[in-house]
């Protein structure tokens, strides 16, 4: 019997990573999932328990060595691991640079030594800053906060390893991924986690600004399909913007969730609209979104109890959590004016 091909997924017990594992197993791969379990959950991979197809390794990517045995024989490496919360990066920049840049370098070196066929990096659209929309891949780079800088520098490290060492690297710049299994603990941030916990508690949704701001939401299974396409293509040294190409307003999300709302101040440094021009990824990878926003939200609401243990945010606690953000982002805004 021919042995199944091997893929490595860093952050494999996390939000996007666990869905990536699901897709790879469905497509006939064995998977080594590496996760430090700060944001990941073993339950996200429970459906693979006992199958022999998935091995979960609990460790930090910064501890990965160049000759790491978990990478030996791997065809693909999908790199999702790192610190993903945006707001706290303003207070802990060194930690973000360590995890998202040096951690990426450690994974790149292990992939290089293993001779993998393709390394696919999970980049962030935050590298563009307050971008013109729809945003194309040739848009100027302008990271406005440490998270954005760290993710962009991780991407640049990947392309440097491609240029210097010949490691086949592609990158996918994610706009606004959403779906089941997103993080429920930790810092104030992603709108879905905040709103779902508020809905469970019967509290009003805390709407930043007036709720007309739009985000280019893309359901997580569509994200995973795009990453697999980026691995299977013959193209190397390439990056693509990834979104739904159809931005949805926060007010529309509240319509679908149902409930009262209260308003909190708009945050500096955050765009009114995120909108990926997805023409390049559609043309070059024959990829297209498959899950509508309405269907995606319905899938999440069907599993809403998952968010019952998440922090319950209100205007006061959000103001406290974002105080440093307001201070430094106002300053950055003046300097970029």
From TrEMBL:
Domain of life: Bacteria
Occurrences of domain NAD-dependent epimerase/dehydratase (ranges): 8-243
Annotated pathway: Bacterial outer membrane biogenesis; LPS O-antigen biosynthesis
Homology family: Belongs to the NAD(P)-dependent epimerase/dehydratase family.
Protein name: NAD dependent epimerase/dehydratase
């Amino acid at each position: 019997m021919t042995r199944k091909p091997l893929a490595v997924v860093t952050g494999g017990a996390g939000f996007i990573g666990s869905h990536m594992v699901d897709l790879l197993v469905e497509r006939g791969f064995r998977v080594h999932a590496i996760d430090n379990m700060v944001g990941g959950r073993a339950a996200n991979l429970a459906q693979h328990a006992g199958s022999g197809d998935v091995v979960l390794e609990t460790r930090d990517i910064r501890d990965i060595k160049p000759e790491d045995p978990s990478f030996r024989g791997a065809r693909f490496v999908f790199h999702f691991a790192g610190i993903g919360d945006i707001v706290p990066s303003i207070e802990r920049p060194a930690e973000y640079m360590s995890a998202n840049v040096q951690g990426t370098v450690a994974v790149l070196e292990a992939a290089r030594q293993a001779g993998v066929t393709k390394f696919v990096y999970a980049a962030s659209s935050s590298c563009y800053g307050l971008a013109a929309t729809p945003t194309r891949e040739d848009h100027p780079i302008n990271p406005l906060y440490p998270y954005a800088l760290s993710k962009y520098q991780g991407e640049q490290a990947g392309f440097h390893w491609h240029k210097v060492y010949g490691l086949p690297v592609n990158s996918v710049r994610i706009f606004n991924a959403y779906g089941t299994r997103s993080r429920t603990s930790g810092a104030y941030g992603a709108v879905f986690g905040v709103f779902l916990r508020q809905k469970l508690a019967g509290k009003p949704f805390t709407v930043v600004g007036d709720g007309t701001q739009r985000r280019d939401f893309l359901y997580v299974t569509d994200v995973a399909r795009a990453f697999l396409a980026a691995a299977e293509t013959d193209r190397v040294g390439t990056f693509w913007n990834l979104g739904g190409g159809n931005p949805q307003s926060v007010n529309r999300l509240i319509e679908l969730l149902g409930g009262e709302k209260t308003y909190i101040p708009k945050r500096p440094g955050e765009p009114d609209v995120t909108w990926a021009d997805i023409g390049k990824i559609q043309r070059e990878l024959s990829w297209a979104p498959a899950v509508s926003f309405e269907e995606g939200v319905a899938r999440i609401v069907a599993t809403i109890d998952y968010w019952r243990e998440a922090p319950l945010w209100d205007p006061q606690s959000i103001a406290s959590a974002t105080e440093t953000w307001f201070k430094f982002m106002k300053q950055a805004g003046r300097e970029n004016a």
